[in-house]
Amino acid sequence: MNEYTKWVDRVCRALSIALHPFMIPTYAILILLFGTTVVSHVPMALKGFFIAIAVANTILLPAVAIWILKLFGIIQSLSLQDQRDRIIPIGIVALCYFLCAMMLSDVAGAFLLRRFLFAAMACVLLAFVVNFFWKISLHMIGMGGLVAMLVLMNASGFGQLVWTTLLFLLLSGALGSARLYLGSHNLAQVTAGFCGGFAVATLAILFIP
Question: With the C-alpha atoms ordered 185, 190, 192, 194, is the resulting torsion angle positive or negative?
């Protein structure tokens, strides 16, 4: 492996880590709270509460649960490359997202955050069902869901996030290319992941109360 190949490999792996599905809900909440949106006016203390709830329920709890599954030999690898390894972890992630959304159900000013968390849960359930038949890209489902939220925020007037939307569209393309380069997925799995995540998140945000 020459120096250029090593550099490309590092960039692709860095993208896969930075845009890991576990990170997407936290990125979405940060954008909603600190971007130009209708919920950006909430007090800083409340923003800190929202972020802490999101990090605990969508990053820390799923990560610890998956580590425990690996520790007891229930899954083979933390990377979840094998379809069979994904079933239980995906179910745990869906439950964590649901609990996170319910924790915010009675909090004033959290309606958009709650809707996105339900949309994220719907995306995870899509991955759970599809995984029984086919290996779809979890990374791209997450990015599709995030881009859907950004598009709807702009279209509804709840946010002015045009440049953020363009940025994450570009990052989605870069991430899809990275997953292909690393051999984690083929083109169909990457494309289906993004389109599926976008469609499911759109429907969830529009129709889940």
Answer: positive
